[in-house]
Here is the input.
Amino acid sequence: MGPLVVAELKPLLRAWFPLALAALASATYVMGETRQASNGWASVGLIAGSWMALWFYLAFFPTVLAYGWFRSDAQRELTWPRKARTLRQLAAKALALLLVGFGIWACVVALALVAMLATQKSGPVLPWLLVKTALFSLPSVAFGLALLFFLAALVRNRVVAYGLATAFFLLALVLSSPERPAYLLPLFTPTSRLVSEFVGFGFFAPVIYLQKAYALAFAGALFFAAVYFVSRRRRPRDPVAGFFSLLFLFATLALALVLMKQPPQSAWVERNREEWTALATLAGSGAVPASDLFYKTFTYRAGDRVLRVAAFAPLAKCQLAFMDRYLKTLTLFGVKDRVASAAEAPYRTSATVKGGVLLLPERYRFREGPWCERSAIREAVDLLIPTPNVRRHLARGEDARATDWQTLKRRLNEAERVRVVRLLAAWYATKQLLGDDALAKELRLWDRLRTGLPVHEALQRSGAIGAEFATAGGSVGEALDRWRRQDRDAIIGLIARVIAERERVR
Amino acid sequence: MGIRVDGLTHVYPNGVHALNGVSFEASGAFGLVGPNGAGKTTLMRILATLLPPTSGVAEVEGVPVDRVEEVRKILGYLPQHVDFYPSLTAFETLEYFSLLSDVAPRPERLRELLALVGLSGAVDRRVGGFSGGMKRRLGLAAALVHDPRVVIVDEPTAGLDPEGRIEVRNVLSALGEERTVLLSTHILPDVEAVCNRMAILMEGRIRFVGTPQELAARVKGKVVELRLPAATVDELRRNHKVVAVRYDGGEAIVRALWNGESAPQDGAFVEPSAEDGYFYLLHEASSGGEPQEA
Here is the structure.
């Protein structure tokens, strides 16, 4: 088998164009994934890489297969009357293709690692994260290959086989919505919110492992079906391949049944948020050591202040920036070492966190630049002034029909008011900590986002910003002046009152 | 022992009878001739173990074709169309086919084979740059990597230039000296040049088995060459089967199958070729004649 695989590898490695295309696709994709960029060239790389990764299957495998076993009837007629059995012939080709696919991934992951080391000035890197991501992508590669083999064996026409495969991949792309239980798509990839689970942590990990097993079983079923159908044509028939195909098919169906019972990704995202809150509670109350919760604890020092932190991994660049801004924001509002969770706002129950641990979400890990600073300030302000949890109120079934409308409306109004106060507090903190330019940027961002945004309309109604804010030239500066001139004291007073009220409730 | 076929019948799932009780024995260089759609490729694929027959017997060196793996050990097959990995060299291609045939590729043996088919100067050249004739010859070498006792070649000279045809024919002649070569073609001069015996397959039935000379002798006294005014050729076609026409000024020199006892006034009986015999059988088959054995 070995020499035959080597022989099959030679033409693949010499097909330089599809090889270069595949390498480029993988490189852009992995780099984009690694940086998790929200803007700039890295995000362009991420988007382009996602599409190119798709083309990895659509362009690379069909192209190399076009030079291979399914090239034409002519080559089949040459290779089929040979002594090597169908399984051996097809397995050698499949192994060679998988080796090339894995080789491309390995090279690209190594390159991504080097790039990370070169560009990331502080904080550690996570080579295992990249390697695991690469390994987890292999079932998809195996499936893509097996699907093409199967289609070519079944329809006997290369063009039709590639057409069907392309249609399948496009359909898979369209159907891979986080809102749908998309696990049955062999090319399934979790949303970025579940990335830590993707690499093996958290509640979602078993689903991922199940899904990968499902994709592999599906690939196995297709591969053996391809061997079986080809062996029927070239003889002798290979009933063992048929048996294995059925065996893998049953495994696929069994795993599919289990997967179908799993909630959709959106539900897992919600659970993920709740998990953070629960972990914050457990760790903060000292009931369970943070080290037992998969998350490592670290000590963060800022001047004479010391904070214990629990995080997914040793703090990275953005997390460090986050910590710094977070503490400064707390100080600005006169709040001492507040321990809380930086989990999602709707599920934030930081009031219950009484230990000395701040739980830092993993998603901060790969963020950079202004996003860090802004989000740190927002998180800190959000922790100071939590909103009434209208969403949870509704989720408990206390909707408009079951609840007194006036009560609900009051809660909604209160929530809206608190949101406005939080936003203004964040602006205030931004100006104090980051300066006028940063605030101007922040306001410009809001200016772009303002259309139809309820919170912005509320800001207008409260008089914090004027109606001319969005339309007049230089409106950002004008709004800032107006805020400075007229509303600053009132707003700070309002913030102080809200904080005091919250403290009293606690 | 070569190839033995007895009462071989193949019916495709759509009901087409490709072969109807075909019987013949072949050893040495044996030609199989017939028009397109006669069933030649079906017969080749059955013998190459790619297609099971509906009924009848087909044996290669005494081994029934049902024993697929045994037959594949002793059979080399060159299909009508050949295609290789374009990025592999001729040598690497033969290595690849050796491995597929469960034979350890020995460099000296592979070089010998390439020399046999006249490709010793292209051992390290990539196949993508080969001409059609070179690819066909490489295909022939690939069919021989496991030293088979029987070689089946389907239309090996189709589409080749005259030089390429001669090269392939020479290789086949040499092979026919020491093993059974079944040459399927519709180019009769190739059969005459390579084979000592031949069969004619028409509409799934064997119409003739014998030597090319016997095929030619079948129409002795039936082939005339006429010199006619060009305008009268159409009239001649209505009454006789015209094998060939060559125009010379206002006249036509016509080779035709002649029904009469005596030669026409403006022509004479000529020595028939195997092609004339083939044409005669073809004409006879279309008019409902019975199969003949030489």
Summary: The two ends of chain A are 71 Å apart (CA to CA). Chain A has 18 helices and three strands.
